[in-house]
Amino acid sequence: MNTVKLIGNVGKEVNVREFESGKMATFSLATNETYTNRNKELIKNTTWHNVVAWGKTAIVCEQLLSKGKFVSIEGKLNYRSYENKEGKTVNVTEIVAKNVEEVQL
Length: 105
Known about the structure:
It contains one helix and six strands; from the N terminus they run E-E-E-E-H-E-E.
């Protein structure tokens, strides 16, 4: 089973594109992890994720999300690759969102 749930902050405004088959939304999400190392120092680690949403989920993202908003995303991991203009293979890891909700603190 390929399932991912992330809770974090939207890193930039949502980019929405429209196709004949519907809409696609892309944005970045920052998740934070805090822990204490063996020297008793507090370490904060931020990880950035690329998120893509299609169809009705893309419409929800377009209407709900803005930079800095705290959200929960459920979806799946997707790995793909493509060849860039220089002929080099570029590997991409992204989250394909199925459900996006604002989180209230």
